[in-house]
Specification:
- By secondary structure, this protein is an alpha/beta fold.
- The chain is built from twelve helices and 17 strands.
- Strands 3, 4, 5, 6, 7, 8, 9, 10, 11 and 12 form a ten-stranded mixed β-sheet that branches. It has a five-stranded parallel β-sheet with strand order 14-13-15-16-17, sandwiched between helices.
- Helix 6 crosses helix 12.
- About 2% of the residues have low confidence.
- Pathway: Glycan metabolism.
- It is a single-pass type II membrane protein.
Length: 404
Amino acid sequence: MDQRKFISGEQVENVKPQKKLICNFAEPRSDVCEMDGDVRIHGNFSSIYFINSFESDTSVTNETWQVKPYARKHDRTLMERIRELTIASSHDPFDAPTCTVNHSIPAVVFATEGYTGNFYHDFTDVLIPLFITSRQFDGEVQFLISQMHIWWVHKYERIFKKLSNYEVIDLGKEVKVHCYPHAIVGLHSHKPLSIEPSRAPNNYSMVDFAKFMRTAYALDRDSPISLRENPRTNKPRLLIIARNRTRQLVNADEVARMADGLGFEVVIEEASFFRTVAQFAQIVNSCDVMMGVHGAGLTNSIFLPTNGVLIQVVPFGMLEGASMADFGIPAGDMKLKYLQYSISEEESTLIELYPRDHPVLKDPKSLHKQGWSVLSKIYLRQQNVRLNVTRFRPVLVEAMGLLN
């Protein structure tokens, strides 16, 4: 283990090798502290104690650190809702509570407050960082969750059981003192909905994560249909992700008829709360191409077979950069073929709400300058999409070609 210690981004060298607590506060997405030794976790007191050996550097005795174990620290407003955990380091075992339960496995501590419940943030902020942090232990690790939402843990039960062989502990309700030989507080996070292999244990990648998800949800298809074999009888399946509130594809049926004419077998489905993750994962994995308007539903691309095709429809309003960062780059990292289609002003229902000379239509940049709350209200919440099927047709033709 690297024995350097990071405090607020400053690296301190020449720390003696006996020192076994390392905190990294320099990363933009999350703070993480890792301890190797005598770790005592007192859940409902939000306290974690690390007992140094008596031979350790006495200059670091009785230090404390505060960590909010949710991987979105750049969002200051959100992070105000995340409970702070205190890590206290001491040479004296009597400074810490006595162990109630002793474990021989590592612990990973994180929070499920924040934006959990939004499918995109479930994976970007928690599940992918949890995979990065804990997969290296091959199930021999226990999760302790601060601000735990039991419904959320049940929703992703298959993932939790695949990552850990042990029961999840609700920190807020736990009165016992759990002791571990190793603990990680906080989750490593690299970028939205993705992994940087060079920074991950065992060089894990998004391809590895996608394979892990297929195993967790018992998905059969690792690759899309081959149109080279029996091209006349093999019809690729196209999934159109429907939305029932904002950014609806209002002429989805018309798009489906056009796609059918091109040779696709078309499925229109909504990833609603009434379906389990497992049920929708099966639908997505059965398809070769998935398309939808920018939004959390595109996160389901993690269930597509490798080399499948993702088509993202970008709403009007200069949202290309965010769309690429949120789903385009992750698609490439998962080895999916990716196509991005930006709608025209005529394909936006905003033309029914605003005069043609209004800044919303003529000067989107001015709305961006007013901040996220303004631009998201208009371009993400007020807008629906009516695709020009003639203009969009070449995108589906290209998708068909990519399957060859």
